Amino acid sequence: MLSYQHAFHAGNSADVLKHWTVCLCADYMIQKDKPFWYLDTHSGAGIYDLAGAEAQKTNEAHHGIHVMLRESEEKLPEALHLYLRLVKRLQAKHPHHYPGSPWFAQQILRPQDKLRLFELHPKDHQHLEKHFRQDRRCRIEKADGHHGLKALLPPPPKRALILIDPPYEQEKEYNEVIKSITESLKRFATGTYIVWYPLIQRASTQGRNKSGSAENMLKQLKRTHSDWLNVQFCPDTRIQGMFGSGLFIINPPWLLAEQLQKGLTALAHYLGQDTHSRISIESNN
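^ Ribosomal RNA large subunit methyltransferase J, sequence as received from the core. Prediction below:
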């Protein structure tokens, strides 16, 4: 079963979807000369050891990034190439490690761009400082990322890519995302926002399955803005608990939906469980 806690999910299919999309969006942002900021509300540790004890508890990378890295680049759509090349770049120096979202952004951003990373967990914050403190473009804060956004928006260059990726260990976190997006859009309506969320099956009293709070969160998020994409990848819909994940993207880059469609088809082929996998892209345009 997929786990969505930071310590255990490194390199699984949810990470592949999220980090690949961050790469696509960041790569789009650097196509213009004007600088931009990358903001990450829940940055985690930054880099994860897939051979470590925590990762080995579930070994989810075995059914995620490890599968993708075994495939030759020629067999995969171009939309996935940058993401996989960056993973290989890290592993060339640190075998068996997998990067978190801040690392991918760091590799793509230019000297004129900046990173603003938030992480409240003491241990993860310590690791984040270790990995990124030498980068002058990067500022790391041990703080709640939802609150941190308030002080940073709108960013000086008026361009930003913002990832909101809480662990959703408590039901209230779904409401916190809604509040954070609503308030952020009032300050900075033109930013590109990526909200990651888990898809969870929970058995109801009638013996049926019902989704978690993500469904209600999505209903609210769709009312906040007129330009959005909702992307979902479910490797195996039969699983109880977390069976997949999604991304709600506000102000998506031009042609992102087309790139995601090509890449998701490949992910479903390599990471999906036969006919029980599912991909979907929903757009408001």
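The domain at 13-283 is CATH 3.40.50.150 (Rossmann fold).
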